[in-house]
Every structure is written in structure tokens, then in C-alpha cells.
Design a protein that fits this description.
By secondary structure, the chain is mainly α. The chain contains nine helices and no strands.
Length: 201
């Protein structure tokens, strides 16, 4: 197995464990066992557990950005429909994982922001990249007349990011999609309903 493949396998195994039980509770030995990699391999690829955690976060961010782009770059659909499809996908992920994982970036931000400045900064960077995609979607919706130009895209994007992350946390605690459904309903029926072309989805 190549070095690159081994590193990828360690990150993949670590992602699953960290998503379920958090970073601090994740032991290196458990990650290596799950990856099927000898114990001596870890520090060949990662200088520290913190460096490993950041690599896991980077891998997640790259894959999630690709998924976001799949939704928001779908030119066959109106912009707000793209957003709605993404939010439906977020709910499907919660159900698929039985409400046990939620958002990895959000989880690590809550767990580590006060412990590791490097994690806080990286999570915020990831969130900002998502916010930029949301804001771009809202701006494009304004240009096509789907959304009123009176609404501020950056503020809407911040509200979407913060509200969705909070709703996902509540959904995990309640083991129910209702908090996310409620958030989506408020977003589309009461906030984005100020669209130029009348009622939304």
C-alpha cells in the first residue's frame, strides 16, 4: 500500500470515529485498528493528534464543498430550489446516521474552539466558505427575480448557516427532524417569502 493510500485510510477511519464520539474521546490506537494500519504508522503521516484532527477536518471540508457545489451549480433548477434540495439532503443525512453524527465541522467547533485555536480558525474558515456559497445563491436568485432585492444576501446567508447548524444540533438531541423542518419552513415561508414572484416552495 502506498503512503498516500495509508494516510487516506487513516483519515477515513478517523473521520467515522470522531463523527460518532468526538475528537478528545478518539484514541489513536482505535483509529489505526479501524484503518487496519500498524501502530507505528501514525506519526509517519501526522506530527501530532492535532495535526491528524486538522487533516480529518480538511478532508471533510473538501468533500462537503464538492457536495455543496453539486447542489448550487445545478443550472437545471431555480436557485431557491437548489437551496431547498440541499436542505432536504441535510435532513436525509441525519436520518441515515440515526441522528448520531450531525455536522462534523459544527461538532468540532463546539468541542474544540476553546481548546485549540487552530481548530477554531479552520472551522470558521469552512463556515465562511459555506456562507459565501449561500450568499451567492441568494444574489443569483435576486437577479432572476426569485428573491426580492430588498433582502440582504450576506445577512440571509449568515442566518441560514447559524440557523441550520443550531437546528441540526437540536435534531440530534431530540432524535427528530422536526427542528430542521421548522427552520426550513420559517426560512422559506416567512423570510424568503418576500420574493418578487409570490409564494415559495
Amino acid at each position: 500500500m502506498s503512503k498516500r493510500d495509508t494516510r487516506t485510510d487513516i483519515i477515513k477511519a478517523g473521520t467515522g470515529i470522531i463523527a460518532r464520539q468526538g475528537f478528545n474521546a478518539t484514541g489513536i490506537d482505535a483509529v489505526l485498528k479501524a484503518a487496519g494500519v500498524p501502530k507505528g504508522s501514525f506519526y509517519h503521516f501526522f506530527a501530532s493528534k492535532e495535526a491528524f484532527g486538522l487533516a480529518v477536518l480538511d478532508s471533510f471540508a473538501e468533500r462537503y464543498a464538492q457536495k455543496l457545489d453539486e447542489f448550487f451549480n445545478d443550472e437545471s433548477l431555480p436557485h431557491l430550489q437548489r437551496l431547498h434540495n440541499y436542505l432536504d439532503y441535510s435532513m436525509q443525512r441525519l436520518v441515515k446516521h440515526s441522528f448520531s453524527t450531525g455536522c462534523l465541522a459544527g461538532n468540532l467547533g463546539q468541542e474544540l474552539a476553546d481548546q485549540h485555536e487552530s481548530f477554531r480558525l479552520r472551522v470558521e474558515e469552512i463556515f465562511q466558505s459555506w456562507k459565501q456559497r449561500f450568499a451567492a445563491c441568494f444574489r443569483s436568485a435576486q437577479t432572476t427575480g426569485e428573491l426580492s432585492v430588498d433582502l440582504e444576501p450576506d445577512l440571509l446567508a449568515e442566518f441560514l448557516l447559524t440557523g441550520l447548524e443550531g437546528a441540526i444540533l437540536r435534531a440530534r438531541v431530540k432524535k427528530s427532524l422536526q427542528p430542521v423542518r421548522d427552520f426550513i419552513d420559517i426560512l422559506f415561508q416567512q423570510i424568503l417569502a418576500k420574493a418578487s414572484n409570490g409564494p415559495l416552495l
